[in-house]
């Protein structure tokens, strides 16, 4: 028998991905409700999402525009909080969740109301691609890795062949569970990111608020990363394919994060390192793809310039301290 205080809301942000939603199988149990936040894509995709949710018994929250990932998450969380759900699970449409995994995540949320909780994730081919992630606060570079003991300031050295950094852990929003108490400390996702880096920001703010990040290394969920933003030109189903949207917002939001979280000196450092770090982001899909997909390079340059503008505005808004008169 389900405990009333243990109800779980699965919040899924959808943007024209109804074909992926059709493949998503979630159990019908008393303690679970599926909430699909449908960001407006096309009239046809809206109708498809509404019809699918109606057939599955899911709740559909149609939005008048594309609110982005963070805006969609916040809309779903508001709906679930108002209806008294104790636990929330953010889930991408291209993830595959077993009833057992859902039960484990709900139980851990109830046991750890002070934590963000994530499983390990593998692709449908069995490749493990997420077992925690880290951000270097000195450069804005991200990598796979997990210390399990991050502090808000970061204290982890770089890997072999990498410069020493201040690495902090973060958890992906592709499959992220947490108790409603977490939202007493954090005001949802930061919507101006629009897409990508919201989960980095959410994790860092959680740690700074005294919450914990928990990686369940004995729980695995299947997720084909990037399925919702697969490259439309190649049409290939490859693990390393990225989209122009991916490059633009990753380059942009690295600097948006810096503008929100770094002091003046740290933000200047990130700005100076932008050419190197944006190139590193562009190379995540392999250098050869930049020759066959020049739009990806243009997207990365555009995102970098947009991020630079945000960062420079942040610098100009911060006055240097005046000379001491004491």
Automatic annotation (TrEMBL):
Keywords: Transferase. Residues 139-163 are annotated as: Disordered. Gene3D superfamilies: Spore Coat Polysaccharide Biosynthesis Protein SpsA, Chain A (3.90.550.10). Signal peptide: none annotated. The keyword Secreted does not apply. InterPro entries: Glyco_trans_2-like (IPR001173), Nucleotide-diphossugar_trans (IPR029044). It comes from the Bacteria. Residues 32-135 form the Glycosyltransferase 2-like domain. GO terms for molecular function: transferase activity. This is GT2 family glycosyltransferase. It comes from Microlunatus kandeliicorticis.
